[in-house]
């Protein structure tokens, strides 16, 4: 198996953590400059991660996670409640990425425009629910939903997009998993 991605992508990091104990190769690309052409050779949607397993190429982290579970018994099948949690995590993650890319493009995301107001609303509401779910112990097992939550929180903290002091249970959750296999090796700060 070959995983293609970027060292700073939270979606790639999810799969790297899921594969932490599995044999695979990892190819890191700078998808915003010289790695763009290499990415285009692997995926028509120009997004990461990409997993190549023999003749099969998969384009999305959730699809990759499901594939790994079903074909390689990596992880466990997700319940509908876990799928819903992933929708919350992905919604917040996508909105945070939108804010970051907009800021890097020179767009003022602090303006009172509908688009950015909706992104911030989604982040705020999703993070509040995730904080409550963490308080209830929903993420005590280190499984795919917990990995996704960890990468969201750690990435948002790394990018200074959220203040973890506002989310004490999420902050505690993050701190409790910093020693999991692969976490140090996949840290975007390194």
TrEMBL record:
Short name of one Pfam family: GST_N_3
GST N-terminal domain: residues covered: 1-76
Stored PROSITE patterns: GST_NTER
Protein name per the record: Glutathione S-transferase
